[in-house]
Prior knowledge:
Mean pLDDT: 91
Number of domains: 2
Structural class: alpha/beta
Strand content: 15-25%
Low-confidence stretches: 1-24
Order of helices and strands: HHEHEHEHEEEHHEHEHEEHHEHEHH
Number of helices: 14
Shape: globular
Number of strands: 12
Oligomer: single chain
CATH architecture of the largest domain: 3-Layer(aba) Sandwich
Radius of gyration: 21 Å
Amino acid sequence: MLQAKLWAAVIAAALSLSGAGARADSDPALIEAAKAEGTVTWASGLIVNQAVRPVAAAFEKKYGIHVEIATADNLLLRMTNEASAGKPTIDIFDNAGDTISAMRAADLIVPYASPETARYRPEHKDAENYWASCCVFFYTVAINTDMVKPEDEPKSYEDLLDPKWKDKMVWQNNENFAGPPSFIGARLISMGEEAGTAYLEKLAKQNITRVPGNARKALDQVILGQYPLAITALNHHVVISANQGAPIKWLKIGPVASTAETVGLVKGAAHPNAAKLLFDYLLSTEGQNVLREANYLPADPNVPAKVPELKPEQGGFTAVPILPSMNQEQLPKWLEIYKRLFVAG
């Protein structure tokens, strides 16, 4: 009951932010077709209780369409197997973006030109309408404020090469866009191949500790005082923890690596119209505000973060977008550099 009240509060706050009359510009015929289907299955990589259930509840309240929530674990394998059997169980999905290219290459998704994407930045929507982003993520340097004095805070990535940081930095060991490869890519893109490679070779000598798991795991090590600094912490995670009293702070050292949660529609879905309508809702001002109230960072450039400075425009920092297309084009190279310099070495 308490959890239901919390979701209701999130929805109410989001609706008040978006305006009582706000609605997605979905085709009325699409809405009617979606209502006729009556249900939609959504596989999400977002935290279920934090974001997925509030969005689902708001969508159900608005359209009367039931949302079945599915796990996004092993999504590519699941979708491949179900497509082979001719029995897709998922209608719409979202993930962190590093498998969307593989899904498209395997002919597992279909394009959809949502009217909501018109105001989105080019890096947050596919030119051929195969995906769009509902949330954005920024991987920043974070410090334990009990262990690092203000005068000792690094002001640039070059400062991380200072001998005082040797053996004192941590990052997650993910070998995808949610891990060190994005940091490596951002350095090569922003600094250029030659200068970026030279920088990474120097950084590797600092003996950065690799923590099994995701960015949250590495950040927790810093909060607990095991290390004074994390290289690739999600800035909204830092703010959430700081607001709970943790001695943690993120630094506006740019350009940071930026990834996004991409939304796509499954080919052969059982409820294609309801899936399109949910796609529209996730990208609508109303849906973006529900995500905002859940402490995610809206991809819509017109919807500020709950803490505005978490996004570059309001926060005064720069970011390098790590695009889904880079999964096949660049990730293998960045992963090779990571393993050669930071794992094997």
